[in-house]
Amino acid sequence: MSAKTTSNIVVLLFMFLTASSSYIHEGNHEGNGKHYKPCKRLVLFFHNILYNGKNAANATSAIVGAPQWGNLTILTSEFHFGDLVVFDDPITLDNNLHSSPVGRARGQYIYDAKNSSSSWLGFSFVLNSTDYHGSINFIGANPHLVNFRYISVVGGTEDFFMHRGIATIMTDATEDQVYFRLRVDIKFYECW
Amino acid sequence: MSAKTTSNIVVLLFMFLTASSSYIHEGNHEGNGKHYKPCKRLVLFFHNILYNGKNAANATSAIVGAPQWGNLTILTSEFHFGDLVVFDDPITLDNNLHSSPVGRARGQYIYDAKNSSSSWLGFSFVLNSTDYHGSINFIGANPHLVNFRYISVVGGTEDFFMHRGIATIMTDATEDQVYFRLRVDIKFYECW
Amino acid sequence: MSAKTTSNIVVLLFMFLTASSSYIHEGNHEGNGKHYKPCKRLVLFFHNILYNGKNAANATSAIVGAPQWGNLTILTSEFHFGDLVVFDDPITLDNNLHSSPVGRARGQYIYDAKNSSSSWLGFSFVLNSTDYHGSINFIGANPHLVNFRYISVVGGTEDFFMHRGIATIMTDATEDQVYFRLRVDIKFYECW
């Protein structure tokens, strides 16, 4: 895990002075003395390869719970309602699965919608690079059909001590029901 | 999901100036410049119908994990210790299951007590009504035998951007081991 | 659960004026008007006995989800990737399993690493002693091979109303794959 990277600009970090992105709904808030523009920002990718009974060596995740009509090697039909997946996904700075990882995304996702494509996320980023060392903890709803989904950054440790924020998740690629790649744009509004 | 409602007072929202309710233990706090009276409040209901092997069409939740002595169509005996349930429950403004939903409650509950009736909750409200659009993220312990249980509101998005608070949960109805309805009184103390 | 304890100094509580512990990495932070030294601190132990098919009476936890190659009475080989455990563990003031509990630690842990020993934690402390009444909610990554691991305290209720902080977890003892004891050093930085 977490090979030290040597690239010069390792993690994309911006001290945003203006809210310029069209999807930073959060940037519009004004108010009572707290930060409404991110005090720190990271854009990272993570890569999920689901175990399907034949890819044990490469898989980074596995179904570990399923409803009575499901099983552990293939997602249930249509919206996969009830499938619970544990993952240990490499985090990279770009969209290349084979780039040197800067950490691991670990936790669970649960397909939690009967009539649409959606999941509930509970996971952590464990970062270990030349630029960052520490964990970031997330929970939230992830409605897959919305281009940009928002989840909560509920805490962090070490370099992210006590941080809070919002992460914007975008599905950057998907292949069959085995591989997907998420782009995660983490905006911290409490940095300590 | 989330039909636009047209009722005039859609979501109960109070800017509480006085802590009047007998069960607002939180309202008693005084202190260091933060809000000790809710800056926003929502009272909502959600409805859980557990899959029992025969009600696939109506069920809004399913057991997806169980201990070795359990199974996926019936809760384990007595306190159901170890049963893990995924849910996709309609949220309504009143206690009527058939009212037009204003969103979905999605996530998991886990029966987590060997010798009492209790669960651990990790879920989100995904609201989509004329009055609210956004998600609210919850975790916490839910000891069923206590009338009013407190869980943490650990974050929110869009209309609930970065919010934190406490939700008071009450079991409003229960029928056999298939249906229950919870009343959730969400008090935000950080509103941004 | 939660016998009233009668010992005179029941819960170790320190208002730290100086950051003296060698592992209080968090104590080094300086900044913008928030607390960087704990406003409250608790040191507690909890005790996990995993169900193995033969210890139903004593077990405090059970595997309820496992990958396709696993089962519910024994952890999967090596790093146990994918095993999901529900627990209802006694919390004590010292490292003695048989001390009078001051509450329960309830929730889930998930072995979430393919090539190392690590878990993801989502749980609550439900405290009920002469000194404390209320719950504390945790999530975070728990890499077992690191001596001191940090997870997030994302909220609390009653005596811990709206609290946030960092918990430092240490494995205090482990026996086979059935028993382990964790020492949890909870430092609150937001106390309300």
From TrEMBL, chains A, B, C:
<dbReference type="InterPro" id="IPR044859">
    <property type="entry name" value="Allene_oxi_cyc_Dirigent"/>
</dbReference>
<keyword id="KW-0732">Signal</keyword>
<feature type="signal peptide">
    <location>
        <begin position="1"/>
        <end position="21"/>
    </location>
</feature>
<comment type="function">
    <text>Dirigent proteins impart stereoselectivity on the phenoxy radical-coupling reaction, yielding optically active lignans from two molecules of coniferyl alcohol in the biosynthesis of lignans, flavonolignans, and alkaloids and thus plays a central role in plant secondary metabolism.</text>
</comment>
<keyword id="KW-0964">Secreted</keyword>
<protein>
    <recommendedName>
        <fullName>Dirigent protein</fullName>
    </recommendedName>
</protein>
<comment type="subunit">
    <text>Homodimer.</text>
</comment>
<dbReference type="InterPro" id="IPR004265">
    <property type="entry name" value="Dirigent"/>
</dbReference>
<comment type="similarity">
    <text>Belongs to the plant dirigent protein family.</text>
</comment>
<dbReference type="Pfam" id="PF03018">
    <property type="entry name" value="Dirigent"/>
</dbReference>
<dbReference type="GO" id="GO:0009699">
    <property type="term" value="P:phenylpropanoid biosynthetic process"/>
</dbReference>
<dbReference type="GO" id="GO:0048046">
    <property type="term" value="C:apoplast"/>
</dbReference>
<keyword id="KW-0052">Apoplast</keyword>
